[in-house]
Amino acid sequence: MTLAHFLAVNPPYWVETLTKIGIGLVAVLLPTGALVYLFLFKMMSFMQSRLGPMEAGPYGQLQLLAEFGKFLQKEDIFPSKADRFVFAAAPFVVLVSTFMLVLVLPAGPDTHFIDLNTGIYFAMAVSSISVIGILMAGWGSASKYSLLGGIRAAGQLIAYELPLVLSVVGVVIMAGTLNMKGIVAAQADFGVWFIIPQFLGFLIFLVAIQAELTQPPFDMPVAESELVTGYLTEYSGIRFLLFFIGEFATAAVFSAIGATLFLGGWTIPFVDANAEIMDYIGPLVLAGKMILIAFLIFWFRITYPRFREDQLQRLAWKFLIPLSLFNIVVTAIFKVVF
Amino acid sequence: MTDMTADLDINNSEQLRYIAAQAADARVNVELETEGMTLNIGPQHPATHGTLRIVARLDGEQVISAEPIMGYMHRGYEKLTEVRTYPQVTTLINRIDWVGSFANEVPFILAAEELMEVEAPPRAQYIRTALFEMGRIANIMLFLGDMAVQLGGVTAIFYAFRDREFVLNQIESVTGGRFHPNFNRIGGVKDDLPAGWIKETKSSMQKVRDFCDEMEDLVVGNEIFQSRCRGVGVIPADVATSYGLSGANLRASGVDWDLRRDAESPLAWKDLDWKVWTHPDGDSFSRYWVRLQETREATYMVEQLLDGLPTGPIMAKVPRIIKVPAGESYVQTENPLGAMGYYVISKGELTPFRVKIRTASFSNMSISPWLLEGVYVPDIATILASLYFILGDIDR
Amino acid sequence: MTATEDAVQEEAATDPVREAIAQSFADELGDGFIAQHINPGSDLWIRIAASSWVDAARFARDKLGMNWIDFISAIDWMPNPYGREMEAEQDWVVHGGGPNDKDESDAEKMTTGVTGGDTRFQMFMRLYSTEEHIGVTIKADVPDEAPAIETLIPVFVGASWHEREVWEMFGIDIIGHPDKRVLYLPTGFEGNPMRKDFPLVARRVKPWPGIVDVEAMPGDGDGDGDSAADAATDAEDAS
């Protein structure tokens, strides 16, 4: 998106850059906060027959700020044997991958940070950077629990990267482009959102992002009843907060990617996708669809117990990957035939 | 330690331990050129809900050996009972299994009554039995939620705590104590039931049954829960008995034995119509399943007890200052965690001469080194949760 | 108790099942079998020689179907050497006597429970049949000098922890136990806490309030006469 588009003037380069950084922060933190408040605080509480936060602000709405302040105040503890640089850098690596994912998300015909021709390819690629951050956290903490958690996370993320990418391939075949905006446009042209023809792909995508996010039932890396909290065990204060933001921001971004790929992105049926008004309501529509998918993610998270490591790998390699390959083949056949 | 094999003594534990550790390391080293890892789980760890410590030697995710270390909460109750009068002892033994406390008092009181040749009136026995079963419900409901939490399903425990409150409120309104009733007296119970209690209790029993149905849907019917539990931590019946396992752990291994049905007891179980649940598999899932059925069964038992509640006094005639005649008695009851017994030796004084407290969790946990050998790290949580121990019940 | 229940008691005064079990132990162990005690309809105790300890357990498991190990523990029959000192002042009112009023004769006459006994320490275990629903308590004297007994682990694997507890709490050596480490006590703890001559420090430092409620119960103390609390107060006033 260009600022000129909104302001009708051409600002200097540095103003535009700063503005983009600001918008980027808002684009990551606002949905994250919304997810945490809506789902983690309120929906989870209601599902567990309790009220959740009620004291801070009306209906507990300021609880997020309170939590934020709490984490900022806490001591930033380094374990005495930790590899200090690796330990300190790990949360930022995780966060970087999340921020880079947002770059390619289109939220309107002209509302986007960059319009890469290989957008979805780029997204899938940078999403794996978080593995490195998690491994760094596991190794740098100099704790056995963290190490086990980090290694589990690495094994799991690599295993579920494959079905994630393969489930997207079906959409890419149908759209005929790797460009995210192109995929949205293709859905508008196709008539129905890709969730209908690619329902199997959507299911695989959901399972795979659940695993990528290490949310239950795939939360083996942070299994609190065995590994305390896995690679997060030794983190406190601001660094824990960064991991926390990273986790839920990634949930938000993956939901948004899912909304873009399967639910038509910023478009609304029977409204011209390229109308100028869509630049303004597009982000809201996308946020709405993102919350729909995030609801599913959190619903599973709150309901299910977790898989064991071997069961989780078996599910990925023996079930999801063959299934997604099957999906690709079927999609390709239909594409060629029709 | 230089020449371990020269004078190898099969009975020397340190030597055997050393050799086993070396062999385990050597095997791991040769295969993968890696080292085994010792993981110290506890004493402060979410899986141990208390202060249990488990030293596990790991080969990757696999447990080579696991050794529970306890005593972090040993309070020496057997010694302390020797300097307390009989009525004072119940205050102590309430704290053994602190989630189903009422059931702890009963066997001790029965043992003392047996020595004194006093028998509580029928109404007192019915009240005791009803509260005993409610203590069981309160105890096992915690397990039903906790096991799911150990497997990562956090929601179940909130339901458990929510619905357990109905039972605890009822216990509290009779005894005045939610966790530590201290309500039994030698020769009866302290008070009669308050007005309206029977009706409220029946409705709370209905809520417990609703909770059981909910758990059946949310936990037992869940495929992930089943795949985590089925075939994990299998205990054959003969191993179970030779380790002295009891309660649902034993019945889940197919041993049809319940002290409520199979032992002579002055309590009112013999008047009830109920069923002992067993399961042939002996794995973690069957232990959960048996406990779930027992909870539901217990609600029906409470209802039957309240329907058939006899009228009459609640205390037998006992002297104000209780001196128990010399003798020995052993009374064991089927407590929520398993068979719990008190071996009381009296010399005709105000205080017991010796009290041996047989707790269920102690024996139930003694199987854990055998059971944890060769499992994966996640199964440690499953197995420990399914054995269901209360730390106070192990450490006494 | 009604008349019919009395009749049941009369009938149960002989207990053929438990007598048969005791007899079979006597036949099997021969000289190792020392005494028996039957509480009709309720319980069975036998006392055996320490040398027959493992044999008795194996016999009970294999031939009598007593497959379930309940517990193994020990008893220290020595009378409390601290005497009345361990009790509270109020208790003297009830019993009579005072802090230094140690009954010397007690120390000499050591009474040893239902099946008797010759030594200070006695091991006892309880086995149970999950099929027949009948249990037996087996006792064995262990020598005063260097108390020791053989391990039951070859018969019941679950004996291990029970025996570790006995070993640390009573100082009775378990011969052949492969894993003799402290179970409850901290490493390096000195003494055997469950022995009667191991002082309970808390009780020695500060007397326990005793059997009588410290605060008078409602209704007590205004003249119903039998209140021990009144008596205690009176005793304090007098001294």
The helix/strand class of chain C is alpha/beta
If you consult CATH, what is the topology of chain C? Beta Polymerase, domain 2
Level-2 CATH architecture of chain C: 2-Layer Sandwich
CA-atom Rg of chain A in angstroms: 20 Å
Low-confidence stretches of chain C: 1-9, 213-217, 221-239
Fraction of residues in β-strands of chain A: under 5%
Low-confidence runs of at least 5 consecutive residues of chain A: none
- The counted number of beta strands of chain A is 0
Explain what you see.
The complex is a heterotrimer of chains A (338), B (396) and C (239). Chain A is mainly α and 338 residues long. Chain A is 68% helix and 0% strand. Chain A has one domain (75-337). Helix content of chain B is 49%, strand content 12%. In chain B, helix 3 (86-93) packs antiparallel against helix 4 and helix 5 (122-150) packs antiparallel against helix 15. The two termini of chain B are 37 Å apart. Helices cover 31% and strands 19% of the residues of chain C. Chain C has helices spanning 3-12, 16-29, 53-62, 89-95, 104-108, 159-170, 201-205, 228-238, and strands at residues 33-39, 43-48, 68-76, 121-129, 134-142, 148-150, 173-175. In chain C, strand 4 (121-129) and strand 5 form a beta hairpin. Chains in contact: A-B, B-C. Chains B and C meet through helix 1, helix 2, helix 9, strand 6 and strand 7 of B and strand 3, helix 4 and helix 6 of C.
Topology:
The complex is a heterotrimer of chains A (338), B (396) and C (239).
Chain A: H1 3-7, H2 13-47, H3 63-73, H4 84-103, H5 119-127, H6 129-140, H7 144-175, H8 180-190, H9 199-212, H10 237-262, H11 278-303, H12 309-337
Helix pairs in contact in A: 2-4, 2-10, 2-11, 3-10, 4-5, 4-6, 4-10, 6-7, 7-8, 7-9, 7-12, 9-10, 9-12, 10-11
Chain B: H1 13-32, E1 37-41, E2 53-59, E3 62-69, H2 77-81, H3 86-93, H4 101-116, H5 122-150, H6 155-175, E4 184-185, E5 188-189, H7 197-220, H8 223-229, H9 237-242, H10 248-251, H11 259-262, H12 284-307, E6 327-335, E7 338-346, E8 354-358, H13 360-366, H14 368-372, H15 377-387, H16 391-395
Chain C: H1 3-12, H2 16-29, E1 33-39, E2 43-48, H3 53-62, E3 68-76, H4 89-95, H5 104-108, E4 121-129, E5 134-142, E6 148-150, H6 159-170, E7 173-175, H7 201-205, H8 228-238
